[in-house]
Amino acid sequence: MDMDRKTQDDGALEALFSAAADHAPEPTDAFMAKLEAEALDAMPSHAPSPKTTRPAVWGALKGLFAASGLSGAAVLGVWIGFVMPDIVPSVSPLAEDTASLSAFLPGADLAEFSE
Amino acid sequence: MASELAEDAPDAALLVAYANGDAQAGRALVGRLGPRLFAYATRVLGDRAEAEDVVQEAMLKLWKIAPDWRQGEAQVSTWAYRVTVNLCTDRLRRRKTRAQVDIDSVPEPDSGLASAVEQMTEKDRAEALQSALDTLPERQRQAVVLRHLEGLSNPEIAGIMDIGIEAVESLTARGKRTLKAALADRKEDLGYGHG
What we know:
With 115 residues, chain A is mostly helical. Chain A has helices spanning 3-22, 29-42, 50-83, 87-91, 108-114.
């Protein structure tokens, strides 16, 4: 094939490219609308939704209750020991070697009476 | 949330705005990228329905990555094309039966292509080219479409196809030669064999 023919064919191919570029396949309006809808569905939300707020608040409250319960028990123990020191030996098996079984088992003293 | 971005805002700015809850920015990106990706996928796959599936998947991947997008690292359109090219490649490789022209056995055609093309309408030219594109090996087809129909530069195509610029030049040159041969072989089918 001579160079003139090759040049002509190259030009013809360019004409085909040009025609094809001018007749690009176009998406339908319905498809574009679908793409938009999917974009909005997938969009990250920065406002907390009700679905996520309720469990989050409930979880935080449960955590607060748990933490306050633990610290409350600790504070109560210290307070009892401070204001009523006499009661501590009576409930502690280590404070008195002759601690009565009735101190630990409710009803055990009644069993002693019945004997 | 209303968009405060200008119409000519860069794609990356739109994507970041979208990630921050700007619906209008998302719509603008769909308007910019959707038709381009669809045209590319339709030309490479030769099937509108398959092209729609590919574009949907590519755009969903874009929305997913939006919150982590770092401006300046890549162009959004390049990233979107790359995803689309890969999705098209996957689909083309799953096709076992499509006949393709052997790229190494194509001689320079003595086709009389120029006189034939002169007699064709614009629409016929576009259809003839699409028919010929369908016979190209997948990498040549992708490179030719990106270069000569989508109008991208060789460096852009190199980034999208993850190959060197010389490889892009080689693919497009071989693609054009194969296209001319395919058009010459199909003159009768395409309706300009007697021109």
